[in-house]
Records
---
Amino acid sequence: MKTSKFYYFTISLLVIFISCNSSDNKPQQVTTAANPIENLKNEIRQYPDSSMLIQNLIEAYRDSGSYDSALTLTDEQIRKDSGNAYLWDIKATLYFENGDTSNAINSLEQAINIYPLSEYLVALGTIYAETKNEKALKIADELLKSDKDKSAKDAFFIKGLYFNYINQPQKAIPYLDSCLQLNYSYMYAYREKAIAFYNLAKYNKALVVLKRAVTLQNNYDEGYYWMGKCYEKLNQRKDAIESYQNALLYDKNFVEAKEALNKIQNKK
């Protein structure tokens, strides 16, 4: 599956950077210098108590791939305010994107212990599902019990994702259908449902799901990638090539799509 920054973590982090500590009194300016990190450091020297500037610096480190620096700065803030669930969520995001699943889980559990926000539960349930941890089902049930109107779609998605990862696609499909009934534009549910059909060798059914997804969101790169995989299984080489090319059109750095395209083009 495509490796990328995970959706739930990314959205949660963006919300935090936009909304957290919005009551800072000092004016915040957009960083336009050639080196935004150094510019932010200079601004922090001028306004050392500005939480927003510090969080902007964490984001700048993250954008540049400097996860160690971002985590060090986040830890400094947690030492000052260990009961801040937002900071623990930021830490979880950084660990997750840096490939440290275990510490991402630990950080999210800390955030939830402080403030069991549904977004944190969804993130933790998803990562549990992707690591084949049965706790994913428990979190999904908790979401259905405590916040059904808001989080039912995510709860069903987590269950479907879990069963896909433990190689029980037949069990995954009904949960993904329930998710899509509540939110027909839930792209990740389309992807997982298509993967379930793919793993059941029902490639035409998977294509029906994927075509629906890319019709709703025509730049859905992962949809085109899985279409390519299905077309390959059906020996429809031309359609497979076109699908991989479409995936790369919308994400030129999609490694799996590049590899698949090169492989099929080099076949004699």
---
Amino acid sequence: MRAVIFGGTGLLGQSLYYHFKEKKYNCYISSIKKKSHFKSDLLNKFKIKKFVKKIKPNVIINCAGETNVDLCNNNFSLAYTSNVTTVKNIVECLNELKLNCLFVQISTDQVYNSKKKNHENNINLSNLYGTSKYLSELEALKFKKTLIIRTNFFGKSLSFNRMSYSDFINNNFKRKKTVKVPSNVFFNPVNLNFLSEVIFKLCKKKVLGVYNVGSRNKISKFAFVKKIISKLKLDRKYLKSYKSIYLKHQRPLNTFMNTDKLRRKLNIKIPLIQDGIKNLKT
């Protein structure tokens, strides 16, 4: 079995690469970085088509895109090019080649913003980053064999050029730098290892459609960071809370995802946030 991971040198891409290799897949990573099997330019359809035609993958996972929320909110043209045009190019190539493979598009929990558990059809776009990611989903679904993963994750980074949120907390606290975290933003992130295993299982079963992948319970970002620093035995004095204001910070206040669809599909137990933190590697 052959898998291609676009954005394969990034945070999730590296985790998936090692996970799929452990499962005996021939795995190829593609990114703009040098440490990849193919230095990709996802704005160049000719190069995409040439690479995909050569590998003939059974699975293509797209982790590429711009994830800097502030940058996307301030520059929608860049967000659209990075998150939408790239997916459009990949899908057009797959359709032109008539490739019989599964295409997995990694999306975000920021397509949601509701006080209730957000189901897969409960879209509420509240910033330009989330808008660009949702538009990328619509492009991805133009390929008939597509799986959309909406998620938010944490864990030890295996990437040489990207830190996870928990890595960011760890590094800043060790450098004695104050970290300000909102107390009124709620989410249900999942451990990176669990996310990688879920994506592998969904790919193996050739599951199509849209799935939320998160923890079973929700938590405020402030409470989440408190648990992280407790696990890592860091000094809490560098943690400061604040109230997120939408007009100022342009962040949804509640992206808590309902994971019932995933649980039923894979017949698995969805972990609690504290389970993921307990298994956090330092």
---
Amino acid sequence: MTDLPDGIQRREFDGRTRLATRGEPVYGEPTDGEWRCWDAGRSKLGAMLESGMDIDLTGDEGVLYLGAASGTTVSHVADFAGPTYAVEFAPRPMGDLLDVAEARNNLFPLLKDARKPETYSHVVESDLDLLVQDVATRGQASVAVDNARFLADDSQLLLAIKARSEDVTADPETVFDSVCDELTEAYEIIDRQRLEPSHDDHLGVVARKR
């Protein structure tokens, strides 16, 4: 079971014990005082934590988050982490992400393409502790490998592999194995686990930079 830092707790919402972070609500999630429910059904990283994957969090990580969208998950990350760089390619959700960042002075939205890390290398600091990736694109392993440049040695990658983004016709397990094989160019895989029932045809991967 994942050891949770002080910034993440298990609290009761709607009669169930669920993950929570302390921060400003973002997507209408249930709250308990200053604590907000981290809905695993809307967050692949939340589902990875709920499933007890072998994730090591201290609560003060420097984070690069790829695929931030409108800020649902990255808002929870910024609630417990240190400086959090949120990369999102699509202009439409960027307005929501900017609103989320207004309440979090450690969250830095970047309208950039995660497949082109050289376009934000002048902004994102090096020697970060954590790379979180949730991007819907072919070549998910290449994205993770190319962005390893921002991580200190032995830092963590938390990756949600979307099988249908790689090949909608292929068996998901075949896709997962292929992506994991490519990841070994830069990472040692520590844990992998399917994210059903929260997220169909997704694999959660925990890895460390070599």
